Amino acid sequence: MKRVLTVLSMLSVLLLAACSKVPAGNVGVKFQMYGDDKGSLHELPPGRYWVGWGYEMYTFPTFTQTYTFTRSAAEGRPVDESISFQTAQGLTVNADVGITYHIDPSKVTLIFQKYRKGIDEITDIYLRNMIRDALVKEASSLDIESVYGKGKASLIESVQRDVSEEVSAVGIDVEKIYWIGELRLPENVVQSINAKIQATQMAEQRQNEVAQAQAEAQKVEAEAQGQAQARITIAEAEARSIALKGDALRQNPNVLQMSAIEKWDGHLPTYNGGGALPFVNLAGTAPAK
């Protein structure tokens, strides 16, 4: 009896070992390796299933996946997974790249039929190769300054577009492909690029200084012209005023006489060397007898 129980316990352990679990948020694919139906596929929702001899179970997560291909052994696999490519000048650039994607649950069987691998192998091998090939293609027409500078963002956008077009039909939706950190270039190339950037910045600074000096000179000139014009305007106004007063006095001579009378205090000068009397014409103002 004891032996029977032992056998039953062993069989139970074997049966449990032959069961595979499809976790929540995953879709399972049961693949028959031998027999009359060799190569047949069965798509399975989350749960625990008897696999049995001659079958393999693959699980595909349908939530967002993120993977980084880096030089660091602390990220991804403990090997150098960074990607290298060349520019139009033949200069080698090395970079760490990341990808974020998700799988269409309705196309899991199609994905397995195409790649015959699980999600980890698809990511490590196929997606990485696609990113590398796209980088090589897109960077081959760019010079090093474009890759290292302003063209860096557009380059990775082109890579994302290329990879997305390649895998979207089979059910892999690429959300984003992105750079991780700085691109790695030969040190002499970096120094040359930095020197050129610095020279360009200095030239732009000199141009800005010249433009500023010209603007200040124009401002001073404008202020001087304004002041000169203001003085001319004032002088013209004063001359016009004098001319108008002269015309008025010539047309009305008595106005000057009346003004002198109003200002005279009625006293003759104490000293009169020439014998001339004040210019006031008393006769013209005296009453008639």
TrEMBL record:
Coiled coil: 196-230
Primary localisation category: membrane
Band domain location: 21-217
Topology in the lipid bilayer: Single-pass membrane protein
Keywords noted in UniProt: Coiled coil, Signal
Subcellular location: Membrane
Keyword Transcription regulation on entry: no
Organism superkingdom: Bacteria
Signal peptide as annotated in the record: 1-24
Gene Ontology CC: membrane
PROSITE patterns: PROKAR_LIPOPROTEIN
Protein name: Prohibitin family protein
Species this chain originates from: Dyella soli
